[in-house]
Amino acid sequence: MAIAAEDVCLERVLPMDEGFALEEVVPETGLPTLGSDVTFQIVSPDANLLVQLPFGSQTQTFLREVRKCCGAGVVGKEDCPPEGETWPGSSKGQSVAGGAPRPSKLHREGTSDALVSSKTLDRRGSTLRSQLLQKEDLYTFLCCFKFFVGSYNVNGQSPQESLLPWLSHDPEPPDVYCVGLQIKLVRRVGILLLLCVRRELAANISDVGIATVGSLVGMGDKGAVAIHFRFHSTTICMVNAHLAAHPQESEQQNQDFHDICARLQFYQQDPSLPAIPLSQHDVIVWLGDLNYRLEEQDIERVKKLIDAQDICALYQYDQLKNQMEAKRVFEDFTEGEINFQPTYKYKAGSDEWDTSERCCAFAWCDRILFKGKTISQLSYRSHMSLRNSDHKPVSAVFSIGVKVVDEQLYRKVFEETVSSLDKMENASIPSVTLSKREFFFRDVKFMQLQMEFFIICNGPIPCQFEFICKPHESSYCKPWLIAKPSKGFLLPDAEVTVELEVFVNKSTATHLNSGEDHLEDILVLHLDRGKDYFLSVSGNYLPSCFGSPIQALTHMRQPIQDMLPEAIRNLVSSYCPGTALLPCDTLICTSSKALIEHVAVFIQTLMPLWSGEDFFWDEKPLDIPKELWMMVDHLCRSACQQKDLFQQPGLRAEFPEIRDCLDTGTLDTFIGSSSSVAEALLLFLESLPEPVICYQLYDSSVERASSFVLSSQVVSMLPTCHKNVFRYLMAFLRELLQHSGKNHLDGNILASVFGPVLLRPPPGRPVPDPAEKQKAQQFIQQFLLLEGSSH
Fold first, then answer.
1. Which CA distances in Å does 579 have to 110, 259, 569?
2. Residue 95: which pLDDT band, with cuts at 50, 70 and 90?
3. More confident residue, 470 or 248
4. How many other C-beta atoms are found inside a 10 Å radius of the C-beta of residue 309?
5. What is this structure's pTM?
6. What is residue 602's predicted lDDT score, i.e. its pLDDT?
7. What's the CA gap between 60 and 625, in Å, rounded?
8. Residues paired with residue 43 on neighbouring β-strands, in sequence order
9. Coil, strand or helix: which one is 695?
10. Is 686 helix (H, G, I), strand (E, B) or coil?
């Protein structure tokens, strides 16, 4: 777990003078453990400290910056291998965790092994690395290594039996073990990925990085963990995933897969370099409980096919196989032939199928897939002898061709490349041509990505480009805009496509709704040793109820996009917390159901269609925003008894229709699942610029969370519109609890879901610690249980 600012305090200050040294401590075995904490010693005239920091890119960045402050640099001839590298193929000086080479004994860090500032990633070094990479085939050869990959959903159980039948199935041990477990409370809550290599190969492992991705909603034990590493000169990525369980359909699993692929990124030790996405690996192995099921729902027919060992016929019903053939998921991945029976679902402790009423359909949930030009599968099997879980583990053995560097050939190619670069360099100023300099994004909507592209074409001179900050600004662009890539290097006559993305989210929508910000920006493209190019970005944003204040929304009786822009800006920008809108007792009713019905009647009678010219500021506002009522009313009418409401994620494709329905009023009812409406409701509450429990009452709410009477006093101090929304939501949640026998919800679940969105710490505060989060949850839970029992 990363160390946050609130985890540390300042006790001593050590001057970084001539007597200061940073010394890395090598384990007694002489061999570092991949992923282990980094231990180093700080030596100064006044102190001798032994310090441990967690493994990861942030720790390596910290160590590098300390070394820079010590005055470390690189010595030697100008045309040595690029900074931070040794002669490839040599194990001496190679890094296991991606940092500096580990010394054999404690010594003061010298200039020979210090990591150099990212500023030395200059034009010459970038060109050299790029050309050496293009000539890689001239100095490398393929060497095959055996990888064991295993996946086991242990169902939260510690094994009571030997794992040797799974891990030692073959007579010859592999070179590398990669083992993935699911539903085990470590790392990504329920997912663990272990990588073990033979001792003599560990020195050839470098650039190790880890990444995690959680499910979009509900988190729980779903998501993925991944490890990236360089084996000799080949980049390999192992992904252990536990996808959402939707037995009747595969859309959610497909969406989870694409989300994981898009969000998995491995940050490099040099923060100036872009993160490495999943796709940029030579070899990828994907394992885990993917939760794809059989399309054949007749269990008896499935059992007959299994008894007859007709695996081929049964495999035709496999969801993953059919989705891959339709190119909806795992495109360009390969899975070996399945010749074993389904790995799920068994009675724990036996080989018998689980035939209970709650039993899901039998399936090959546990899978191993691979991608790459130099990987081939040697075996793929399940292990029926392990009976601890309701899943059977699976394993696969791969032969992976790894690019190994021939040191002599590399030195020869390196010297030839340096000589060639010497001839290329001259005093010419680099220049580029841009395919487009003006960009307009039309009708940008909340949480809807829009993209534009342009091409940078380089001239005859190698060129390093970067979007730079304008004077007095901390970022090269506004927060709703991003350029990919924002920096890079171009060889002569090369070109790169730059993607401009506009994406308005909860943090930027309010300023656009109020008119404080507009979709207008100027990007400055700077060339190293060259001139600057200016790009104009503009567009129009369609206002949305998402990101609008509660008080402003209660004054809008028509859809927000039907209002005049000036009226919207006046309402949103003039929002003042605490303004009285209605008498405090307006929404006090005898029961949750009566309260919901009261608001429904009120809103339906006070929402006539009207033009912007008929708007009067002194009109009586709505009790609550009509958009909130529409979502809650829909859920009350169609989803009160829905199982696991607010716990299962909605489909991302359905959110735009829900948003447009709220913002335009073109439809009387929502299109999409109730889970999608529930997720939109949470996003609506989370995007409020002032949460339902106002920021200024956050501390009072947390302090008084143990007393229902004191908590009620806090609610009574809310502005009337916020108070109405809070009471309305509590009435809705209590209505859900009336159907807990069918929807499987309870007060603790609802409080944990709604607590963080209704009760948020003021901006600039550190992330709440677990105790503070528990108090926020307790505050909400009281109004679900205690207040509900008083009606």
1. 64, 42, 18
2. very low
3. 470
4. 11
5. 0.51
6. 46
7. 49
8. 21, 48
9. helix
10. helix
